[in-house]
């Protein structure tokens, strides 16, 4: 492969600038794989802050995670959970960012979760943090803590914060499941089995619902409005730049019930869907199970 092709691929894969890609390729003797590893050390652009909060007088416990692109000072991800269940404070901030985020969304489903409180302050919290971060040259855990204290002022708040640095490639991909298994969240905070409300796409010349068989792949859209659903949509590739997109799903079971069909869908391990389809519907299908879909779940972000 030509040098120019390596240069382009490296820039696309890592989000680095041309001069940085050229340096990485020179240091790795034009070996693309080595260059990607090299640029990883050069481009620790993403800072993720894993934060635990206690509002003592209000008896409220919180988890917050903020991912920031340090080059642009933009918040890439902002997740929160507030609860009156002290169990969520047991989650270790030393866990990897992906597991910490899973814990946040799981905590929002646990007993004691303050769902309305979380929803009411999350957007204002994010906007406040974004504005404050824009005014700081290089954000640290101390500065993040001060931003949070200022947002909740005059309410007294205790904060624990830990910083994790990643390059863009690491941030876009799931953490290696074999790494740091000793500090993953406890079983009680695993997302576990989740069934999502879904809608199967139709088309005029599609396959009649009464002829759909188990193992076929259909195109669907997740319509579930729960917090956990929004999180899982990101994981399985159902959201592109903020816009909900269609997702291939494998048909597990089809039942005729109450003048309509109940279709059970498979998205990924422990993630299924349920769609109600009218008896005269014609569905958009992709045939038998698509092997590439499993790859998309792993690689898409």
Quick tags:
alpha+beta, 5-stranded mixed beta barrel, 301 residues, single chain, disordered C terminus
Plain-language structure description:
- The protein has 301 residues and is an alpha+beta fold.
- The chain is built from nine helices and 14 strands.
- The strands form four sheets. It has a five-stranded mixed barrel with strand order 5-7-10-11-12. Strands 3-2-1-4 form a four-stranded antiparallel β-sheet, with helices on both faces. It has a two-stranded antiparallel sheet with strand order 6-13.
- α1 packs across α3 (32-42).
- The protein is flat.
- Residues 176-192 and 289-301 have low confidence and may be disordered.
SSE blueprint and pairings:
Blueprint: H1 3-14, H2 18-27, H3 32-42, E1 46-55, E2 60-69, E3 74-83, H4 97-107, H5 115-134, H6 141-152, E4 158-166, H7 168-172, E5 194-200, E6 202-208, E7 217-222, H8 227-235, E8 239-240, E9 243-244, E10 247-257, E11 260-268, E12 271-278, E13 282-283, E14 285-287, H9 291-299
Parallel strand pairs: 5-12
Antiparallel strand pairs: 1-2, 1-4, 2-3, 5-7, 6-13, 7-10, 7-14, 8-9, 10-11, 11-12
Summarize it.
By secondary structure, the protein is of the alpha+beta class. It has helices at 3-14, 18-27, 32-42, 97-107, 115-134, 141-152, 168-172, 227-235, 291-299; strands at residues 46-55, 60-69, 74-83, 158-166, 194-200, 202-208, 217-222, 239-240, 243-244, 247-257, 260-268, 271-278, 282-283, 285-287.
């Amino acid at each position: 492969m030509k040098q120019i092709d390596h240069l382009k691929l490296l820039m696309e894969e890592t989000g680095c600038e041309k001069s940085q890609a050229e340096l990485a390729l020179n240091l790795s003797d034009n070996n693309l794989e080595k260059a990607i590893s090299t640029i990883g050390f050069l481009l620790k652009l993403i800072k993720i802050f894993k934060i635990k909060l206690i509002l003592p007088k209000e008896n409220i416990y919180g988890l917050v995670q903020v991912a920031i692109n340090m080059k642009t000072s933009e918040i890439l991800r902002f997740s929160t959970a507030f609860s009156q269940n002290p169990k969520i404070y047991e989650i270790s901030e030393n866990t990897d960012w992906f597991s910490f985020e899973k814990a946040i969304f799981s905590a929002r489903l646990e007993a004691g979760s303050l769902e309305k409180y979380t929803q009411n302050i999350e957007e204002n919290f994010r906007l406040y943090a974004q504005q404050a971060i824009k005014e700081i040259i290089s954000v640290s855990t101390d500065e993040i803590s001060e931003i949070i204290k200022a947002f909740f002022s005059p309410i007294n708040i205790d904060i624990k914060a830990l910083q994790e640095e990643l390059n863009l490639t690491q941030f876009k991909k799931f953490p290696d499941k074999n790494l740091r298994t000793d500090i993953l969240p406890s079983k009680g905070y695993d997302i576990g089995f989740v069934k999502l409300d879904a809608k199967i796409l139709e088309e005029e010349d599609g396959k009649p619902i009464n002829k759909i068989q188990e193992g076929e792949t259909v195109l669907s859209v997740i319509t579930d409005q729960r917090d956990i659903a929004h999180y899982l949509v990101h994981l399985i590739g159902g959201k592109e730049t903020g816009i909900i997109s269609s997702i291939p799903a494998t048909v597990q079971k089809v039942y005729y019930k109450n003048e309509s069909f109940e279709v059970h869908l498979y998205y990924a391990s422990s993630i299924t869907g349920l769609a109600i389809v009218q008896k005269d519907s014609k569905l958009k299908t992709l045939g038998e199970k698509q092997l590439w879909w499993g790859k998309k779940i792993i690689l898409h972000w």
